[in-house]
Design a protein that fits this description.
- There is one protein chain.
- This protein is α/β, with parallel strands linked by helices.
- The protein has a single domain, classed as NAD(P)-binding Rossmann-like Domain (Rossmann fold).
- The protein contains 6 helices and 7 strands; from the N terminus they run βαβαβαβαβαβαβ.
- α4 links the parallel β4 and β5.
- It is globular and about 50 Å long.
- The termini are far apart.
């Protein structure tokens, strides 16, 4: 996929944070993107700030935890752009508490969004990606291999996501579909109700992950970096 001009990417959770940073870099590389949010208003606001050209970006409302919602969103993408080349499964949530205080609702929201949500996005995209011999990129986390206290639910969802992505890489390469997972450490986003500030300058920035996605798409088709860990080069003190 060396020439990205007019390729089409579907990015879940693209209205802010890592998803927004990825969308920005892909548009800068000549791609057309569809971004989703649980809120259509938020998606439309993000789309307007990404590009003044409505033919380059499509705003959609979707709930990744529901297969029917993702199937509808992907159909809107292919109806609008005529094809789909890339899925970036980025939507995610995190709740951090001891297992004693982690609620059943918080557990289910993380599993339903971070793991089942990616399953739903992938299932919805398989057929158009077979046609384009496209690319699936999941946004996991270093929490997908490194466990820590207060993260039982988050670790479970991200450990599962890493395993899921590696397995579907083996399932789908027979169709010419490439699959990678990116596992970031600390990123300057609004994740977990954080408000980015100058104090986050040491962290990975959303557009850094966007550049990594673009680099993967530019990779020679014979080569597949299937799992990428990425950390801040100089951690904050």
């Amino acid at each position: 996929m060396n020439d990205l001009k007019d390729k089409v990417a579907y990015i879940t959770g693209g209205s802010k944070g890592i998803g927004y940073g990825i969308a920005k870099i892909l548009i800068d590389n000549g791609m057309r993107v569809a971004i989703t949010s649980r809120s259509l208003e938020a998606a439309k606001k993000a789309a307007a700030s990404l590009s003044s050209d409505p033919s380059r970006v499509l705003a959609l409302q979707s709930e990744v935890s529901t297969l029917a919602s993702e199937t509808k969103a992907v159909k809107e993408v292919t109806d609008h752009f005529g094809k789909l080349d890339v899925l970036v499964a980025n939507a995610g949530v995190g709740h951090f508490a001891s297992i004693e205080s982690l609620s059943e609702a918080q557990w289910h929201e993380m599993i339903d969004t971070n793991l089942t949500g990616v399953f739903n996005s992938v299932k919805a995209c398989i057929e158009p990606l077979k046609q384009s011999k496209g690319y699936i990129i999941t946004i996991a986390s270093l929490a997908g291999t490194n466990f820590f206290a207060t993260a039982s639910g988050y670790n479970a969802s991200k450990f599962g996501l890493v395993g899921f992505t590696q397995a579907i890489m083996l399932d789908l390469r027979q169709y010419g579909i490439k699959v990678s997972t990116i596992m970031p450490g600390s990123v300057a986003t609004h994740f977990n109700d954080h408000t980015p500030s100058e104090a986050d300058a040491w962290k990975i920035q959303p557009e850094d992950i966007g550049q990594m996605v673009a680099d993967l798409l530019h990779m020679n088709p014979r080569t597949l970096p299937s799992k990428i860990e990425v950390r801040p080069s100089s951690p904050g003190k």
